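DATA SHEET
Item: assembly model
Revision: 1
Owner: S.N.
Input lines:
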Amino acid sequence: MRFRSIKTQLIVSVLLVELASAVLGTALVVLYERHARFRTFDIMLRGRADSLLGAVQDAEDAQDSVMLDGSEINLPHDDIYEVWDENGRILGHSPAWKIAVRSNVLATSQKQFEEIRVHGAGYRTIRMDGLRVVDPGDNNGGVRRHVTIVYGSPTSPVWQAVWNAVLFYGATSLILVILTGVVMFWLLRRGLAPLNELAAQASGLSVYSWRFAPSDRIRETTELAPLATALETAMQGLERSFKQQHQFVSDATHELKTAVAVIKSSLQLLSMKPRAASEYQAGLERCQIDCRRMEEIVVRMLTLARVESNTTSTVDHSSIHPTNLAQTVKNVATQLETFAELNRVGIEISVPNALTLDIEGDELELLCSNLLMNALQHSEAGDVIRVIGRSAGGWLELVIADEGSGIEKEFLPYVFDRFYRNDSSRSRRTGGTGLGLTICRAITNKAKGTIEIRSKPGSGTTVVVRLPLDRSLSTPTGIAP
Amino acid sequence: MRILLVEDEVRLAENVAAALREIPGYAVDCASDGQMGASLASNRCYDLIILDLMLPLLDGQGVLRKLRADRDLTPVLILTARGEATSIIELLNTGADDYLAKPFDLGELIARSKALIRRGKGVAHPLLRLSDVELDTLQQSVTRAGHVIDLTPMEYHILEYLMHRPKVIVSKRELLEHLYDYNWEHHSNVIEAHVSNLRRKLDWDATDPSIETLRGRGYRLSLREQPRG
């Protein structure tokens, strides 16, 4: 894979733009210089032609003709000129005049300025018509003599000057481009340092290293701050959930190991010495019970995993059938009736008939049966458990209150933790897995509800579940008997 | 020998206690939480404490710390399920003598228990020998001058306990404490009956009495250690 460096790309593109603008600038300079210099050149030509006109003088002859007196004028020897009068008579021409006399090279063209080539060298010529009045002091005002002057000067010095200007400008631009390149490299290195730093820190992240602490420089960079924050929160969230998973696996391992230890010890105890058939029978029955308990732990762990895994995925609410609370509570109470009668614990139910919830039927049942079973296990003979359902402002409140031993204040924050049993000896005897309340919380979380436990040691525990009501169907009338 | 088992998993505790009572014939008391375990242990009548780590109210390490802070030298065997916060090294440094990881082998648990009790009494070998009396703690058999002596379990345990402390006067109360768990009624005349039976069985063919009774104080083995060679 070829790596593409942002820095190199930026430098190359900026240098390319600079180079293009330098080329364009040079072209404009060529145009402007040419124009300006030729304007000056033309003015100079006109001036020289004028001074040449001044050299046309009265010839002092009978015809009152004019003549060119070249003795007084001082013109560059490279220049060429020719002067003739209205009759086409050549009055004179420059000493270096190289064109054949009266070749009409100049006379034919009527244009004021013209580019010609003489012996390979480029010349620019001006054609000027002049008027000379001979003897202006006479009565008739003198004789008017028209003369035509063609004056040319070599253009090579102008072109040379233009070329020099271009050279200067081009060289300056090139030096500037190189200079800015170096400065850009340095500035970009400084400017992109936070990006490099972020990349270096992000590359330090791995399966084993979750720590991501962006430096202040990264946090203060507007473009990088959202990325750094997102990375940081994502890593923290991942770390937290990874730790939770780890904790769960560790807890589950402990529970399962203990369960296996029970079964293993039961079997080893049986096989340690020869026993009577009835002893084996009793031992095997105990093993069965132990196995059932382990099975229950596994089933509950799977239930918890199922409920929790559904929490994160988007639940399609249209697929959930509204569940009637009163019906579910009644079902659960019927299932637990025998257990309650056995322990001589009464159950009072007061749930409005028409309360429906957007929650899976079996999950609501699991929630109710877990809470009711908990209440039953912590109740003593003669106690009464109250199950109350009521709607309160779009919420359904399910209250399950027992008159049992209650939970000490210091244990309350942990009751929802996995495998937590505050009164271990008791709940183990009653077959608790320490997952019941954890499952309850997972179910209420999934239904976007809350669960809360209030307890006073000695006077009982009250569990309050708040779930959002299915508004389309709820009609809060009618109380179940 | 009397063992304290501190384990909150009731079924596991039942099984371990049953195995210890049946096979080596130890007296076993069970505690289902750390506080109860610590208060039972403070009676100082145990020859070994088997301690689970994850306990309600007071965890295993807490119980262990308390024991060692009270200068209790009883050997302690820790039961762990691994993956627990406290490491084995930390436990051993706190004063534990040995550990077993769950799920463990009951046979191994019993063997380790025996070894720890032996070590606690300053003996390294399972075969105890005093004068011409040999006691095999593995087979739970006793011979005197090469003749096998048939003892009831309680007679054997009394002899074993006395042989672990050969020159010490052992009171009836101490014997009661170390040989019976809390499920038994404590009657010192039961001990008297067992000791007199034991003395009769040991001394039927010997000239020297094996166990002397110190009135009002207890019993002491009158067997002398054989000179080596």
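QC remark: Chain A has ten helices and 14 strands.
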